[in-house]
Structure formats: structure tokens, C-alpha cells
Amino acid sequence: MSTDYLPFVSAGASRTVQRGTRWQRIALWFVICWFFFGGLAHFALTDLEARIVPPQIPDPRDVVLLTGILELAGAFGLMLPWTRRAAGWCLFLLTIAVTPANIYMIKIHDQFDVPLWLLWLRLPLQLVLLWLIVWGSRWRAARRGY
User: Fold this and answer.
1) Is residue 113 part of a domain?
2) Is 8 a member of any domain?
3) Stated pTM of the model
4) Rg (CA), the chain
5) Total structural domains in the chain?
6) pLDDT tens-digit readout, 3-32
7) Dihedral angle over CA of 26, 116, 114, 68, nearest 10
């Protein structure tokens, strides 16, 4: 089976070089899917997502659309070897930047049909997501047996 599709190739290699462990590649694909579908949700559920933007942030609808664009760009950036590391760090920072919205959602939890315990669980799971972003987007150089 060929492994010469984008997330597994070396940007500077003349031939395909498998990089990272199997679990790292799974983490990368999880993060790509998370931000791809999350980015799409910003457009499909804009009004719902705008409700969790803290009131101190102006133009919540625009912020939701902008973060959706950034999530989609990050997901596509992770697929390209030459942008993967930068995209990973950008998604890491974006995830930290949207944390106040997750905390605000806990504060106004009665406006949503989501159990409060699930909203609280989201915060430590966000730490796991941050780790997956960094780990999945940072490939180590492949060792060649010359």
C-alpha cells in the first residue's frame, strides 16, 4: 500500500519518506478532521456559535466567521508538509484564544441544551486537544539507513 499522500511525505525529499509514528499520524488526522468540521460548523451554525462569544468581544458573528476561516485554513495547512508545523502552532494559539468562549458557555449554560458536566469536561479535553495539535503536527526527521 502506498503512503505517498501529503500528510506523510517529507517536504524536501526527492522520494517519499514515511515520517512519524502511526499514532502521530492518527493524531494528525484527528486534528485535521476536528478543525475541518469545526470550521464548517462556524458557517453552518453561526448564530448558535455567536451566542457563546463573551459580550466583551465586539461583533460576535464576525468573530465566529473569522475563527471558522482560521480553523479551515489550519486544517488545510496541516495537510501540507511545508506548512504543517506553522499551522499546528497557529491552531494551538487559536485554541487558547477561543477558551474564553468555552468558559463563558459554562457561565450561561442554562441557555443551551447541553449538560453542565459536559461543558466542564470540555476544558480538560481541550488540554488533550492542545497536546494532540503539537504532537501530531511536529514530525521528527525520518532516519535513513545509509
Assistant:
1) yes
2) no
3) 0.80
4) 17
5) 1
6) 444 454 445 545 555 567 889 999 999 999
7) -50
